[in-house]
């Protein structure tokens, strides 16, 4: 037995090696015999075939159709087992990495683009590697088969050998799921693009059976197939059309993924994710066309009979002319126009990625076209500013930023709740997401643009990409470039220049186009700059240079802090400002009287966010900010200050005691008043009157919790005003006079209201006003209101109305009868 065992085994092995060779020889001879010319098929017949493939005989077409319709692994294929737990792998892919099924097309197109990049790189040293004709076209083609529920993605890239199929399509499984997850979370640098790694396995989000047909120049055409059930199979392809070079992926869609068989859905996905891929992407799309076809005999006979009937009613001369025309028409075949569905390759990515080019080579028209495509804004307005730059160093990326001409209507409505950004992140021209608030802070979320990085990993989720260390570097550079772009917009605006520079600016050719651009920007996005000062401490000083506001000397024009400082009086150490509801109200404020009289300039802040802004902007260029409605205002020294304080010491002390119940901390002599008897100011670090009004108007405000921020109030009096002088004399005569106390309280309440505060007891204030009016009209304080006399008017009115209604009803029939008689 042992003698025969070894020879028999050797004999069986020889048979196994010989049989495949014989099969290949038979197939080769069959292909060699089929050299007969074949008529080129029509477009309609070629819908299910591989695009631009070689024409084959009917047997090959049948085998290909059978291949496309099958959803089981071929029995004669060489089978392999995944080395990792496929169930765990698919759980990671579907549940952890990809929450959106749409990205499968993005991943496949990016892989195809990488394969095309590789063959193009090799062709630089070996031009023959590309081949001739259609093979030399580096493009991506997408085709649908709605009947068989198949999507095909074809590229003419470098292709893969059998070993490449085994190695590249098993990358994740071979590395082990646990090691894969650990690597993703630690380094985040998983560059599997072009190797069908994570990206390729996203196809199982929409497909339950996948075929990968690939042809490399150094190997035969092979088919990789798998159902992601723990195994995949590879076999030599003898039934599909030869690809010559490249890869075709066929996705047999799941029942719940039939939406991807819609042409418009695929167009939308390509436009969203792969619009700027470096190679043309074509879709085998359908459209309706008009076609002339032979008319039916019955229709032509009906038309001729109709023409004969109409010809009888015409003159003889016209009939002879028509007969001659009929003879000519009879010689031509009768046709009719019908609607038919035709198919053609439609280019989906016609917008070029201009950020890859040198900024000096891109024209203004190209930037405008790119902005309109990016922002979906096709109005005639151009973006206010743009910045195109290439960042180099540890992190390399390219970016284009635009300032839109108008702010969205809901820009600030959901400012802190919205995660959507107008900045799109690309990795190697492949769209990743527009929900990265890590790229730009929220106060710059009005900017439009793209960022394209080659250093970020492509095939990972948005959540994992957020942890990548490169994002912080990209964010820092983007903020600096964005602020430089806005500052440049201000520098180039003639309205922003000083009078000296205006002459030079006006001579430039584009001065009219740039005139008033920064004022337009400020009106649209000024609130964002203010929010940036509040939120971004690092760039606070740079943002402060972009601030604009009106002042008491600006004549309605916007002023910057630098321009304000250049106009400051000698000896002025502080930047004066005041906050309020409107410019008109502030211009009449008593707090400005003394400042305007002494020729000081005061900034007018009328936006509610300005109150929060000034809590963070404490100084600028070594100049402190001073709210003129608060304590601490210094506007020069008066030699008579000490004398005035001493002469009014008794009055201030008495008045403070009289207002003990009004939460008044002190009564002082004021240096900020000119024509007003007194005002109420707050302490330096407490709320101003305007801030109190804003906080009280909040929907969820709590008055009990706001009391500690109101602080102490100080009554400042004008010692030169006649009312204050007369009050001092009355207090000196009789400090216990009740009428004087009531007058002092009335003056305080009036000053409180004029200073912008809300009265705690409006009824008490009104009663004091009426008492004062009585005195001025010489009415006795004890005079009372006359009692109302009760008159029974209600009964008499009701009686008269009933009488009138009854008389109307009696008169109505008579009038009606009269009208009828008149008509008769």
TrEMBL record:
Residues 1-23 form the signal peptide. Keywords: ATP-binding, Calcium, Chaperone, Endoplasmic reticulum, Glycoprotein, Nucleotide-binding, Signal. Residues 797-810 have a biased composition (Low complexity). Residues 100-257 form the Histidine kinase/HSP90-like ATPase domain. InterPro entries: HATPase_C_sf, HATPase_dom, Heat_shock_protein_90_CS, HSP90_C, Hsp90_fam, Hsp90_N, Ribosomal_Su5_D2-typ_SF. It is found in: Endoplasmic reticulum lumen. Residues 292-310, 784-796 have a biased composition (Acidic residues). This is Endoplasmin homolog. It comes from Forsythia ovata.
């Amino acid at each position: 037995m042992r003698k025969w065992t070894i020879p028999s085994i050797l004999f069986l092995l020889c048979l196994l090696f010989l049989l495949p060779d014989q099969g290949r020889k038979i197939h080769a001879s069959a292909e060699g015999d089929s050299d007969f010319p074949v008529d080129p098929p029509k477009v309609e017949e070629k819908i299910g075939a591989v695009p631009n493939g070689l024409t084959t005989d009917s047997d090959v077409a049948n085998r290909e159709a059978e291949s496309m319709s099958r959803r089981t692994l071929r029995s004669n294929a060489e089978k392999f087992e995944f080395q990792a737990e496929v169930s765990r792998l698919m759980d990671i892919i579907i549940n952890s990495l990809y929450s959106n099924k749409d990205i499968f097309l993005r991943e496949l197109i990016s892989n195809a683009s990488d394969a095309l990049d590789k063959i193009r790189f090799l062709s630089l040293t070996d031009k023959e590697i590309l081949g001739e004709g259609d093979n030399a076209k580096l493009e991506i083609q997408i085709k649908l088969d709605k009947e068989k529920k198949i999507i095909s993605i074809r590229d003419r890239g470098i292709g893969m050998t059998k070993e490449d199929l085994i190695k590249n399509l098993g990358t994740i499984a071979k590395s082990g799921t646990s090691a894969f997850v650990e690597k993703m979370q630690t380094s985040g640098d998983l560059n599997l693009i072009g190797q069908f790694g994570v990206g390729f396995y996203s196809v199982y989000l929409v497909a339950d059976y996948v075929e990968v047909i690939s042809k490399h120049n150094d190997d035969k055409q092979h088919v990789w197939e798998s159902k992601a059930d723990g195994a995949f199979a590879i076999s030599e392809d003898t039934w599909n059309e030869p690809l010559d070079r490249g890869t075709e992926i066929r996705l047999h869609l799941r029942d719940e993924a039939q939406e991807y068989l819609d042409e418009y859905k695929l167009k939308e996905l390509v436009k969203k994710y792969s619009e700027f891929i470096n190679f043309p992407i074509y879709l085998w799309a359908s459209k309706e066309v008009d076609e002339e076809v032979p008319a039916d005999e019955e229709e032509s006979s009906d038309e001729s009979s109709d023409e004969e009937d109409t010809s009888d009613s015409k003159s003889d001369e016209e009939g002879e002319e028509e007969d001659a025309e009929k003879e000519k028409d009879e010689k031509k075949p009768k046709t009719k126009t019908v609607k038919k569905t035709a198919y053609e390759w439609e280019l989906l990515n016609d917008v070029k990625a201009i950020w890859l080019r040198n900024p000096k080579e891109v024209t203004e028209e190209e930037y405008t076209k790119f902005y309109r495509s990016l922002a979906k804004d096709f109005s005639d307005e151009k973006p206010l500013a743009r910045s195109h730059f290439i960042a180099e160093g540890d992190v390399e990326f390219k970016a284009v930023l635009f300032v839109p001409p108008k702010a969205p209507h809901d820009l600030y409505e959901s400012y802190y709740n919205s995660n959507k950004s107008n900045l799109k992140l690309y990795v190697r021209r492949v769209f990743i997401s527009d929900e990265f608030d890590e790229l730009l802070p929220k106060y710059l979320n009005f900017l439009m643009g793209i960022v394209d990085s080659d250093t970020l990993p492509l095939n990972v989720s948005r959540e994992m990409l957020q942890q990548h260390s490169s994002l912080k570097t990209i964010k820092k550079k983007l903020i600096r470039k964005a602020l430089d772009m806005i500052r440049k917009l201000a520098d180039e605006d003639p309205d922003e220049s000083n009078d000296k520079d205006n002459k030079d600016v006006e001579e430039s050719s584009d001065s009219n186009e740039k005139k008033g651009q920064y004022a337009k920007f400020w009106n649209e996005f000024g609130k964002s700059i203010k929010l940036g000062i509040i939120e971004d401490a690092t760039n606070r000083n740079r943002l402060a240079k972009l601030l604009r506001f009106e002042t008491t000397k600006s004549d309605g024009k916007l002023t910057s802090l630098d321009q304000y400082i250049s106009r400051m009086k000698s000896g002025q150490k502080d930047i004066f400002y005041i906050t309020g509801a409107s410019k008109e109200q502030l211009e009449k404020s008593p707090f400005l009287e003394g400042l305007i009289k002494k020729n000081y300039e005061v900034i007018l802040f009328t936006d509610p966010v300005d109150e929060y802004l000034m809590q963070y902007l404490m100084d600028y260029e070594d100049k402190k900010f001073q709210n003129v409605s608060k304590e601490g205002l210094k506007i020069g020294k008066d030699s008579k200050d000490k004398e005035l304080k001493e002469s009014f010491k008794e009055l201030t002390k008495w008045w403070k005691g009289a207002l003990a119940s009004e939460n008044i901390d002190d009564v002082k002599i004021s240096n900020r008043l000119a024509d007003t008897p007194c005002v109420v100011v707050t302490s330096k670090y407490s709320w101003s009157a305007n801030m109190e009004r804003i906080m009280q108007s909040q929907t969820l405000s709590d008055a009990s919790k706001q009391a500690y921020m109101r602080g102490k109030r100080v009554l400042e009096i004008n010692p030169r005003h006649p009312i204050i002088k007369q009050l001092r004399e009355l207090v000196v005569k009789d400090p216990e006079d009740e009428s004087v106390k009531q007058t002092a309280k009335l003056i305080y309440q009036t000053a409180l209201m004029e200073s912008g505060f809300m009265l705690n007891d409006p009824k008490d204030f009104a009663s004091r006003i009426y008492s004062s009016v009585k005195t001025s009209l010489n009415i006795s304080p004890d005079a009372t209101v006359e009692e109302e006399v009760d008159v029974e008017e209600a009964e008499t009115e009701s009686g008269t109305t009933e009488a009138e209604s009854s008389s109307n009803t009696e008169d109505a029939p008579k009038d009606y009868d009269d009208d009828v008689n008149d008509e008769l």
